[in-house]
Amino acid sequence: MNNRLSFFVPIQSPLHALNPLTKLALVFAMIALAFFSFPWLAPGLVIPIFIAGLVGKVQNQYFFVVTRLILPTVAFMFIMQSLFLPLGDVTIFAFWIFDVTRESLQAAFITVSRIFVMVSSFTLLLLTTHPSELMTDLTRRGLPPQFAYVIISTLQIIPQMQAKAQTIIAAQSSRGLDTQSTFAKRVGALVPLVGPMVFGSLVEVEERAIAIEARGFTSTRVKTSLKDVPDSRFDQILRWGILVIVILAIISRLWLS
Amino acid sequence: MEIISQNVVYFAVVIAIMALLFVWAYFTKRIQKDFSTMTWVLTPVAIAINLTIGQIVLVLKLPVYLDSIGTVLVGVICGPWAGALTGALSNIIAGIILDPGWFPWFPVAAAIGATAGAMANIGFFKNWWKVVVTGFVIAVVATVVGTPINIAVFGGISASGSSIITAFLLETGRSLLSSVLTTNFIAEPIDKIATSLLAFAILDGLSARYLARFPRGENAAIEKGQQVTQVIIALVVVVLLILFAIFILPMLTAQ
Q1: Most buried in the list A83, B36, B73, B145, measured by CB within 10 Å?
Q2: How far is A193 from chain B (nearest CA, A)?
């Protein structure tokens, strides 16, 4: 499991300063344009994403995520799809049982660009927005606070569980459990490792429920927030602009085809 | 994309039915009853269990995912709506901390939790063979929900290992839809039955007093009081399924 718990990069930039909802709207706009607008638009959307990465001053981290996470997936999909999709007759080249046609190459290219745009825009959102900031803003706009609790608290529980796993591994090894040798032994060691971790976390649930109940978790009053998330005039105009562009793009696609 | 545009009407009908079901359950207070404080607190723990066990299994390179044990757990003891929410949020959180490629699969995870809850409500989580049936039903539902997503978003061949089976089936001249469906029917049942049995084993290890604090804790009560044998059978079946996936599946698909 990874050590970092979110992609967030804590620096100052125009993209970091945008309201979280605006960034979320931008992400969904990119996905809507890539999937429901003209197919040839999807590869072109990569350019605004790169520009956004530069504006947000996260190009290094973004490039790292692209090379480590996105490119291997996308490259594998592109090769498999261009080899195996049963489309078209115009064979570009063929060997053994495989034949690559123009149509399958096109289909593979468009699918892969769509995936790239989708994953990239989410990555940029996560690089420039802290999850709790996004949750604070969405809660203020009417998302039930319980959803925010679930997401934020999961992000806190996972490192606790990892620490607990380390403790359990140390405890069981000191009792002579073999966690280093052959595959079969390591799989066998899984039960005494995972068991205490799962049951331990589940038993804590009851205590935590009492604790947050005592702090007014189920209260229906409007709660105040310690942190104020700014929402400028520019953000509001940008959000309406995005909505109009997406609707126009989808309507023109439906109208022209 | 042709397949999607042909079936757009069916999708609209399915979504409309889901929305009506939600409105009905909301206004008859069925949803609110299932979301007690215990449910809200169990959800993050269940998501953490999903992700932690999923990552361990991934590291061990076992031929299953086992990344929805927590989702099934919540579905059984807190009802289908809570299960669906846990599944959906689980994928969203995996998208936040692991890889944004998890986001598009959230309807599948939600369907898994909802199915587990619905099956448990009609009493199909009370002994080991009923849990196997539940696991199979979950696999069928996950396949039906996952196949359109796989085709619409990933063009039928995604980056998972089982895509190789899809590619093989395409090469034998089947259509894209039938290839993706067949692949999922081969890969899903083993994973989902093992997941359900493990969730069953975990529930069995929890005390009745603890389970009674949850909205539908009685769903997990075992019949006939033969607890020890039930759990041993469940764990043996899990081991057999995983061995089957390691040794038999490669032979079947290599032909």
Answers
A1: B73
A2: 11
